[in-house]
Structure formats: C-alpha cells, structure tokens
Amino acid sequence: MRASMAACGEAVARNKSGGTKVKTHRGESRWHIPDLGKLTVPENLRALHTEIAAPWGIIDLLDFLKESDFVTAFTDAFTDAFTMVATREVSPREVIRKRLLLVLYALGTNVGIKGVADGGRHGETEAALRAARHLFVNRDNLRKAIATLVNATLKMRDPLWWGNGTACASDSKKFGSWSSDLMTEYHARYGGPGVMIYWHVDRKSVCVYSQLRSCNASEVATMMEGMLRHCADATIDRQYTDSHGQSLVGFASSCLLGFKLLPRIKNIARQKLVKADADDQVPSCLTGMVADKPVDWKIIGQQYDQMVKYATALRLGTAEAEQVLRRFARGGPKHPTYKAIEELGKAVKSIFVAEYVASQELRREIHEGLQVVENWNSANTDLFYGSAGTLPGSDKEHQEVSMLSLHLLQSALVFINTLLVQSVLKNPAWQEKMTDADKRGLSPLFWPNATLYGRIDIDMDRRLDLGLVA
C-alpha cells in the first residue's frame, strides 16, 4: 500500500500518468483522468481477413462445428458410455456424430430441431434428431465438450501471435426468455423480461466459462464463480470487469483466491486511497484523495482463519459465492468476518486505484480486455438468431443447454479461425508485415467469412484444408 501510494504520487507529480491530475470540483477533490481516445483498426488486419477468404472462401457455420470436431473429437464427450442416457448404442458411431452436430447447430443458433430437419437435405428426420437430443445432449456433456474445444484452442495457439492467455474479462448480456420460466425477471436497465448470461472471455476471444443467472443476481459472485470454475487448463491470474463486477468483497476475495481483480470503475474520480497506518505520510500532490481512516489490521488478524475458511470453501466448491455473500449481507449488525473482509478489500482496492491512476498502460489494458467480451456479445446476436434470440424452455436446464450450445458453436468459430489465421501468418512475408499494433488487435472472433443463414447441409466426407491431422 505504501509503495503504490508513493508511486502514484510520483507519477502524478512528474506527469508520468498520462495527464492524471487532482482537481477540485464543487469543493471536493477528485481525480481527473483524461480519455484514452479511440484506436484505429490496423490496415494489416483488414488485409489479413481478405487473405483468409481467398483460399477458403465463405464457410458454412455448420462446417466450423464439423471441422472442429474432426480435429478435437469433442463429440466423444456426448457418446461416452458413462455420460449418455442410453444404455447401449444401435446406430453406428458416425451416424450419431452427424446427428449430434446437427442438433448442436440447431440449439446453438436457436433455429430449433424442426427448423434444421426441414431446412436441408442431410437425410436426417426430425424424430432421429430429437432422439439424439434426448439421449446424448445434456449440461454435463456440453461442458465437457466445451472444455475439450477450449483447451484444444489454447494448445494450438502460437504464443508469438496470441500471447499466453493468463487474463480474462467477464460481462453479461441480457437474453429474452419465456414468462413461464421462474428465472425470468424484468431488467431495470435493459428493459423487458429475460435472464442474463455471463461470459468469461480471455484477451484473445476464447470463452472459458458461461453462466445463466437471473437479472438481479450478484455480478461479484458470478465473477468469482467463473474464475474458480472455468474450464481452461491455463492459469488465469487477471480478471477484468466493469463497475458492477467489483466491490470491497470482490477485491478481498480476489486476494484470498490468488488472482488480481482489475475493474473499470465508473465513478473512479471519487475513489480514495487508504493509508496503511494513521502516521503514514501522504504525498502533497495527493492531498484530498486519501481517506482519513486507515485500514483496521486488528480485525483482519482476528478473523484471518475464518476468512481463509470461506475462501477455501469457495475454491473447493463446497459453497457458492452467492450463498456466502447472502449470509453476510443480511440486515442488522455486520458479521465480524464480513467486517474483516471489507477492511482487506479496502487495502487491496487502494493498491488498485493507485496503480490505475498512475499507469496509462493499465487503463488501456483493462479497456481492451473489456472490449473483447463486448465483441463476444456482438457475435451472440448474429449467431443466436432464431426466435429473435429468445432462450427457449420453461426451466433452467433447457435454457442452459441452449446457452452452452451457443458457447460451443461460437468456440468452434474461434477455433477454426485461429487455425486459418495461423496458416496465413506462416508466410514469412506476413510475419514481416505484422506490427505491434497488429498483434494487439489480432482476434480470431470474426464471422464475415461464415455463412450464417440458408440451406442446412452437412457433408461428413468434405474437409477444409487446414494442414492438420485429425
């Protein structure tokens, strides 16, 4: 805390913080942080997308799903003897594989099984597809298939272009839902009844976890749940979120659980730093931006064992984050452990605010991370186009199956695009063209090269030339 405050004071005093200053507004001292400005899209990335379309052309969205399965065999998660509902298999495995791909496409685009059965010449009847949906597709199998595809994407990525993938961003998107579903609530901000889907997306557009929540669910609890339950083999140590995904409890929990919470706080201008001790000296340039009351280390020491107990329960899955927060947020006097968590949160948040104010690079990093998850939400609208994007089903299980199918379909799009981009970048001429700005803006989440609508056909004997062995 002392080091971050000193570094913040030095950066502000010597104008090394990107123009951040302390100004007085209506008698109150506030941070004045200049706008970062909009970055232009590098021209090389536009040319790269054109280069990708030249040899492969426009690819059917169903082929993205099919090719991903040929490379990763994620459909094995559905046909494993220990996970499927059926006691035995009568149909050949290749026939089941084809039906599963059609069913996943039907659920992931929200076209529906009847729409897929009637919309193409694939040779499968509606009854056969509904039987495959009933026997093989459930929430557990979908999460296993997603984990297979996500980990394969992380393994196939070249760190030269994509980095190591140790940071992710979380954000929510409202989907309409049936009024017969008990989770459906009216959303005060977006308007209309529906539910929320929380996506956890790494900086290069690989979604590592998805959750279905009601409109009034705690975003802080959802953020912690996603960090603890994500399906990626990689260790994620940085979490970007918006104002609703942070709180004192969130900062304290991130410290106890071993990751760094990096939110984009809306009212950052009014955030105060906190002294570690009452006798600590405050840099003169930070006058008015440091709270008078220091952190109460005594109560943190008294409740340390209890804090570790709750953090361990969250990590092991014996308690959910929302249950823990609900226990502490009851009316009446505050629980002593809750007080200690808040004091720890003040300390961790003070360090973050000091670093955020002092570093323009950190502010840019957080903004870019959140833009990635916003782009993921934009793709949801185009890919999940059936029934006006309304989640079908009158219970949570049916809605989660649709959500996870969309997650799987979008992950397949990212997986194949990753391979296509890397195939082009193997050319030494392209390696010389790519600048640091190009690498920063490089993303596999684009879909102008995908046919989203039209006749639904699938040819299991046709393959894309990806230069890989299945």
Commentary on this structure:
This protein is an alpha/beta fold and 470 residues long. The protein is 50% helix and 11% strand. It has helices spanning 2-13, 43-56, 61-72, 76-79, 93-109, 113-118, 126-136, 139-156, 159-162, 219-229, 248-257, 297-302, 304-316, 321-328, 336-358, 360-383, 396-425, 428-433, 436-441, and strands at 21-25, 28-32, 59-60, 167-175, 185-186, 193-202, 207-213, 238-241, 260-263, 450-451. The strands form three sheets. Strands 4, 5, 6, 7, 8 and 9 form a six-stranded mixed β-sheet that branches. The protein is globular and about 80 Å long.
Task: Write a compact overview of the structure shown.
The chain has helices spanning 2-13, 43-56, 61-72, 76-79, 93-109, 113-118, 126-136, 139-156, 159-162, 219-229, 248-257, 297-302, 304-316, 321-328, 336-358, 360-383, 396-425, 428-433, 436-441, and strands at 21-25, 28-32, 59-60, 167-175, 185-186, 193-202, 207-213, 238-241, 260-263, 450-451. By secondary structure, it is α/β, with parallel strands linked by helices.
